[in-house]
Amino acid sequence: MVEFLQQMVNGLSLGAIYALIALGYTMVYGIILLINFAHGDIMMVGAYVGFFSITMLGSNVFVALLFAMLACAALGVLIEKIAYKPLRNSTRLAALITAIGASLFLEYVTIFFLTPQQRVFPAEAFPMHQYQIMGLYISNKDIFIVVLAVILMIMLQYIVKRTRAGKAMRAVSLDREAAMLMGISVDKTISFTFALGSALAAAAGVLIGLYYGTINPLMGIIPGLKAFVAAVLGGIGIIPGAMVGGFLMGILETMVSGYGSSMYRDAVAFGVLILILLIKPTGIFGRNDSEKV
Amino acid sequence: MRMKRCVAVLVLALFAMGMVAGCEQKAPNQATPAPQAGEILVGLNCELSGGVASYGTNAANGAKLAIDEINAKGGVLGKQLKVLERDSQSKTDEAMNVSADLVSKGIVAQIGPLVSGAVAACTPVMNENKVPLIAPAATAPGATVDEKTGETFPYIFRACFLDSDQGVRMAEYAYDTLNMKTAAIYGSNSDDYAKGLAKYFKEAFEAKGGKIVAQEGYVSGDKDFKATLTKIKAAQPEFIYVPGYYQEVSILIKQARELGITVPMGGGDGWDSPDMITVAGAEALNNTYFTNHYSVQDPKPEIANFVKAYEQKYSKTPDSFAALGYDSAYLLAEAIKAADSADPVKVAEALAKTKDFPGITGTMTFNEKHNPVKSIVVIEFKDGKLVSH
């Protein structure tokens, strides 16, 4: 029983990381129907900004988070302006492939300037405390990362559902031309969406750096793909869905490693993607309404 | 039916990402400038960047130090050795491209790559062009031998011991010295090196009467090991063998200690990196051991001199890879002298006959499989310091 509960703790902390990345993924998709494959790499850039602000500027974790989020918000807006905006009226496939291009561009530019070697997050940036509760090992990092993921989800949900900017985002998502006719600036709204999504990615990047201790330029690929699966699992475009999908993925992977074989973990994770797409492509929280043609 | 199309696009996109990642190849440079009269070209094909950059960089530094020393003493056969250094980026395909490029430049021999898988990728290029390759640290048994026919590759040599020796040594150490009767194995499943180590450890440990209570694997690039560690903890092993490279092992050990796993852990030379201590922390590393090629603290004068010269030149302590790179370069220089020629074919013949070569990492005599017969040290992490046994 203790072992099972420990696995749940392990699964939740891993799931929180997927959830954090999936939130940004799903929001961008929800608004402009683009799967931003560069999302994982924006996360990586965020991790590096956080790393350098801790090691070179000596800032604390929260300032580092802030710096990373601001820098990546700007980066996200820039990528949208350069790479996606000119393709806004092309096929969705064109934008998707451009997103893969943006992803590779970020990875290899980072390798070029910062070398492919891993960097070690200073351990003293976030001192670790270990708690032992009834045989369960939980660290303050586990709690921090889960709580932060939930807070960010609530904030995001609030922004999208309750603010004017959020209303504009939903309007653009529903019908871009009608929104434009109503006086909503589509460009500004999409920029805002990217800024928000990229800031979330940056937060996730810094947290991953703190949680595992090392970062490298290719760190965004696998978590990015897994978070994508999590977003699809929860229902892509639906914010609470990303959260639930992330936690489910984390727990699923943990249980596969813990009770099955560690070598089937990734196979199961991507098998879930195939199953979901076959059985219920709109995901757990998705409605089954047909798209307008 | 737009949803279906969307699905197809997604799946395609996922595959595309994988394929793009696998396709970055550079065409080898085909220009063939003849080596200058007074020089002998030595190719260095090392992992100077990428996942195992610390191995390649240090081995290249060691080799360059040796070549500087040799040149300062007048070179070999009255000629200076000239280094052509290339980066394989820790990628197997890139290592092969680099080899093709170096061979086309007219090198006498290539030193590197460090990782067994990359050596295997270079092997066909070297054998076809009849240019010897000295692998400083390729410990996989198949590196010098064609595993299908059992024949030794005529142009592949190594300066290090084998995975089989290493796995057996750690099994002996765990069972006999540490007195551990049960063990778990949790190693990398993405490379031949770690899989080999796990296999030989298991065989030797069981042959001694020990019991393997759990065997698990991870893939390179993994960062979360807690699920499997929790499973291993429940099996209550007295010892955990973790064959793999420092990038993952350092995080793995940290997480094991976070989960309250206090038993001793062991590994191979893939653990040899300063990043182990910076990532895992000195405390988590207490009670962990790994097999290695040499120890910096060895009081032998030639080792002390090497350590001093290396520290002077690069202002850091030479690890095993530096020592193996250094030995590889001297092995090559000795072979050129013995062959009395810088013809790659003759040098390869001379290398195969190497006998009682006094290296930093032990005295080497090549057997018929181009493997040196030499000693293995066990090193313990103790409060952030390396203590050899």
What does this entry show, briefly?
Chain A is mainly α and about 290 residues long. Chain A is built from eleven helices and four strands.
Structural key phrases:
heterodimer, A: two-stranded antiparallel ribbon, B: alpha/beta, Rossmann fold, seven-stranded mixed sheet, 13 helices, 45% helix
What does this structure look like?
The complex is a heterodimer of chains A (293) and B (389). Chain A contains 11 helices and 4 strands. With 293 residues, chain A is mostly helical. The longest helix of chain A is centred in the N-terminal third of the chain and has 31 residues, at 2-32. Chain A is globular. With 389 residues, chain B is of the alpha/beta class. Helix content of chain B is 45%, strand content 17%. Chain B has helices at residues 2-22, 53-72, 92-104, 116-129, 163-177, 192-207, 226-234, 246-258, 275-280, 282-285, 301-314, 320-339, 344-352; strands at 39-46, 80-87, 109-111, 133-135, 156-158, 182-188, 211-218, 239-241, 265-267, 288-292, 357-359, 362-364, 377-382, 385-388. The relative contact order of chain B is 0.13. Residues 17-34 of chain B have low confidence and may be disordered. Classes of the chains: A mainly alpha (293), B alpha/beta (389). Chains A and B meet through helix 1, helix 4, helix 9, helix 10 and helix 11 of A and helix 1, strand 7, helix 7, helix 8 and helix 9 of B.
